[in-house]
Here is the input.
Amino acid sequence: MHKDNIKFQSCLIGKTIAVPFNNDFELISKLRKLLSPPLPFEISIYFAPNPLISTAGRRLPGYKNFIGRNKKFQTKKFNQMLIKALKEAKSYGFTTNLLLNNILLGMAHDNKTLIHDIKKIQNYLEKLYKTGYLDKVTIGNPYLLELINWNKLKNLEIKTSVNFQIKDAKTIEMLNILSDYWLEKNRLTTIEIQKDLLRDLKTLKKIKKAIKNKIRLSIIVNEGCITSCPYQLAHQIHAFTTPIDTLPGFDKNFKFAIAKCKYITCSAPWKIFDSNWILPKHLRYYKNLIDEFKLTDRNDSTETILNTVKAYVINQYDKENLCKLISLLNMEKFLFPEFILGKNFFKKITSDRKPDDKYYKKLWQKLVVYNKNKGIKVGIKLKGLQKSNLHRFIRNY
Here is the structure.
């Protein structure tokens, strides 16, 4: 029992909870109020970098606050805010993590530009590192293991991003070999594994056995991306290549930065059950498998992020509406009550024989009936990228 009489989930002892920073200072102080030390687990806050150094794969939270009268991004103002936020997080006993999870190395289109971009990233890291407030960096491109001079960042922990697409023990073995045995040099402290493995306990066990506890495993638990989505990597790459003159927001005409999966769930809404999310009570099944549970989304409000933390850490949340927990559903207006999942939901979705669409369609029908009885019309609000959008895109250009 915590000194404030807060009962944490026992399966979290010794683990790390990765919490997104949405560029709102109140988030850090309110997180400190919610989870005051001493804690039996680590809180690691992850921060987006200056988008002119490296884009982070989505719109910068609160980006309007950093646009000057000349409509240009105010680098100095952003950097000052970031350092202040890192300092505050450290003062509360939280660890800090900078996201360099861009699959691309900057915005380079030729070798000369690439060299320039790598130097920018190097200098940026060194400046933040010298403040003493940065503990970790997450990299999204394995080439950075060798392109960055890590000898100048000796005590900085390195984590691989989900964009490394680590999907089995063989992938980790190949990463070690191709990177000149980085895993054996003890510089990589954490590997974030592919989202689709969240419900694949068998593969997780194999990975854990292969690494022999030499490295920590991280996974996102509440994002809600559809499993086995072939558009996922293309969506991420196009998000990273948002034109530089539209940074830090997305150009409304830049279609490929919109999630295609939301279009799929409009036509097959039961797919929301066959997605990458688990409930807070399911964390106990990962006690011997996962070391870091990562929460999303850094574009959410402070209230939403705090409620998500409270849900997965203290197991307190609105069981009448799971949409508030799952990142890609939290903008939906229908209710998603936990009871419709039944007692064996987790056992079914993690078994060797995964359920087919018939199972998920039945769950969806239960959800529709429940909402109908409440006078709520059910439908996926966020339409996503549709075929008509793409055809219009081609005709317009």
Summary: The domain at 10-257+275-319 is CATH 3.20.20.70 (TIM Barrel). The chain has one domain: 10-257+275-319. The longest strand covers residues 42-47.
